[in-house]
Amino acid sequence: FDSLAYHEQTFDIAPSQLCEGGNDIRFVKTSVGDLVLFSYARLTFPRIYRADNDTLSFTQRSTQSAMIDGFTTTNLRVLDISDPNAPQKVHTVSNTGGSGYVITIPSLGTKSKVARTLLAQPAESFLHPASISFNQPSGLNQSNNAADLIIISHQSFISLPNLAALVSQRQAQGFSVKIVDLEDVFDEFSYGSHTPQALIDFLSRARSTWTKAPSYLLLLGDASYDPRNYSGFGNYDLVPTKLIDTGAAGTSSALETASDDALADLDGDGIPEIAIGRLPVRTTAEANLVLSKIVNFSPGNVPQTAVMIADTQGSYYWNFEASNEQLINLLPANMQSNAQRVYRRLEPSDAATRADIINKFNQGTALVNYSGHGNVDVWTGAPIFNNSDAMALTNGNKLPLVVVMDCLNGYFAAPNLDCIGESLLKAPNGGSVASFVSSGLTIPDGQHAMGQRLFQLLYGAQPIALGDATRQAKLATTDLDVRRTWILLGDPTMKIR
Q: How far from the centroid of its chain's Cα atoms is residue 84's Cα?
């Protein structure tokens, strides 16, 4: 060959030289100066059509017929899958053969430039859908939509009477409300795929094109960092959240965690363009309970007092008691004078601290604030309060807003564990009407800058919706992780006074 030319060469090999299974092709130099460079090698050989474990995928020219041996059953089905989007059933004839059952596939009788791709296997081996439901066309991308409040709900909660009651209540207060089936969001914005990106794209569309752009978003349903249930704890990703990376990579602060606000943070500054709240419920019973708390909430039922809880400073750089005192000074005069302090340092024991916290919850109060260390389901490592304590509260309809300035009490995306914020909301005989809690690991500086602004907004001259207060409070800190990881577990349109 000319060394600069590209050539193809065909060699004939007797089929007897081929082995069952893998075969090696070797190029051997015949002289020292030979150089072998090649782009591909293709081996074409005749094959016996024999089923392997009752299955065979093969190609066949349209003018050819074929006999396939080796099946253990006559209940077989052959599909022409040349076009994966339009598979066709192929007529076959079954007989007994030398090694089981044989099927004969006749030719089409007409010539085609492209060979057919066929799949043969037992009829019961084909997958069947678990269920089929008709799609109800939606028009979420149309600009003639309008709503102050969007409620994105999992299908199982849409028809609940307490959701209808909440919608009626908000409409009577002047809000235009639109309930959105999460499946419609997936259908229109992610081709049916279960992904938080669909919610992001939907909310961006609603904000930019709807006749009335939404100002509030309520997510009705829990979320999970394990949407495919690989861990086996359950399919709890009912309404997805956005998972984000926080902290410094490679350090103890690094964490992938949930950020509901990231779903509507359209400019990436950590502040959502829509005030967001979530009710992280998994069952209709939980949903009815939490919705009932919100619908029946009245500030008049709740003693207008504040319970201020602080962890011990110890060797830590931050003084949690001093932070609480600054917050108390931002309360109305009547709440300042009635503020109830539970400071761990001043209590006789951690057991006494825990009993004091539970007792003050059960007496009823409008506001509970905790400053200190924490984890998903505890306050301090002692702990002085945990999610089991929250679930057992008996304060009835005297439901407070709970504000927590610690780490991870809002880590609601764990499929195997409820965080304290969730437990307070789901407590059957009391608990809270809403919580403002963190899903991340952050330090107190940014937390308390945000907390001070939150108190100023909540107890300013005019009552303010929780979602507006929590959203605006985040402007007081430049800590991006604080902005993105504080979660409102509650209704963003609710006012506590």
A: 31
Considering only CA atoms, which of 189, 194, 182, 197 is closest in space to residue 243?
197
Q: Are 103 and 66 in contact (CB under 8 A)?
A: no
**Ramachandran angles phi, psi of 5, nearest 5°:** -100, 155
Question: How far is residue 482's CA from residue 271's CA, in Å, rounded to a whole number?
Answer: 10
Domains along the sequence of the chain with CATH: 1-125 (no CATH), 149-261 (3.40.50), 297-489 (3.40.50.1460)
- For the whole model, what pTM was predicted? 0.80
Q: Extract the tokens encoding 47.
A: 């094959």
Distance, in Å, from the CA atom of 451 to the CA atom of 470, rounded to the nearest integer, reads 9
Q: Hey, how many other C-beta atoms are within 10 angstroms of the C-beta on 475?
A: 14
**Measuring CA to CA, which residue among 287, 282, 281, 274 is closest to residue 202?**
274
| Pair type for strands 306-310 and 275-279 | unpaired
**Digits of tens for pLDDT over the chain (497 positions)?**
455 566 788 889 888 888 878 888 888 878 777 766 778 888 888 777 888 889 999 988 889 888 888 999 989 999 999 998 899 999 998 888 777 899 999 998 888 888 899 999 998 888 888 888 888 899 999 999 999 999 999 999 999 999 999 999 999 999 999 999 999 999 999 999 999 999 999 999 999 999 999 999 999 999 999 999 999 999 999 999 999 999 998 888 899 999 999 999 999 999 999 999 999 999 999 999 999 999 999 999 999 999 999 999 999 999 999 999 999 999 999 999 999 999 999 999 999 999 999 999 999 999 999 999 999 999 998 999 999 999 999 999 999 999 999 999 999 999 999 999 999 999 999 999 999 999 999 999 999 999 999 999 999 999 999 999 999 999 999 999 999 999 999 999 999 99
Q: Angle CA(336)–CA(337)–CA(339) in degrees, nearest 5?
A: 65
First to last CA, the chain: 91
